[in-house]
């Protein structure tokens, strides 16, 4: 028998077709780490197996919070009013007197702000 033709059996465990070679670093507090370790131990898994199983098999309910259209409309109107008030404040700070149109605009803005405030209060109740 020729020793070169014989395949040598290395023995040991066979290699996995897809070995786990990727590493994840998870930041947590000491208390969170203890809780995770206790949960893994309770189900008879290592922490790595437990986290892998939880990450792959659990379902997390994700709901995107969307503001109601009324709130978006109020926000837009308030931003518009704030811009107008800022323009009027600049005129006042520059020492210019308000015209009758600008005084009327301020009264209208004050009325709109009052109405918006009442609508917001009613919405929140």
Describe this protein's structure.
With 125 residues, the chain is mainly alpha-helical. The protein has two domains: 28-59; 69-124. Helices cover 59% and strands 0% of the residues. The protein is elongated. The relative contact order is 0.06.
User: Total number of β-strand segments?
Assistant: 0
Strand content: under 5%
| Uncertain stretches of 5 or more adjacent residues | none
Alpha carbon gyration radius: 34 Å
The helix-and-strand class reads: mainly alpha
Question: How far from one another are the termini?
Answer: 94 Å
Shape: elongated
How many domain units?
2
Overall mean pLDDT stands at 82
The major sheet is characterized as: none
Count of alpha and pi helical runs: 4
Strand and helix order: HHHH
| Percent of residues in helices | 55-70%
């Amino acid at each position: 028998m020729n020793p070169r033709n014989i395949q040598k059996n290395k023995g040991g465990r066979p290699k996995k077709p897809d070995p786990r070679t990727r590493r994840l670093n998870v930041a947590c507090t000491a208390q969170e780490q203890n809780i995770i370790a206790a949960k893994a131990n309770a189900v008879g898994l290592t922490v790595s197996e437990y986290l892998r199983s939880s990450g792959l098999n659990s379902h997390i309910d994700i709901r995107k919070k969307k503001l109601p259209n009324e709130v978006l409309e109020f926000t837009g109107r308030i931003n518009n009013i704030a811009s107008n008030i800022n323009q009027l404040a600049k005129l006042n700070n520059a020492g210019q007197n308000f015209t009758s149109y600008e005084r009327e605009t301020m009264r209208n803005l004050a009325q709109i702000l009052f109405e918006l405030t009442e609508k917001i209060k009613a919405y929140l109740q």
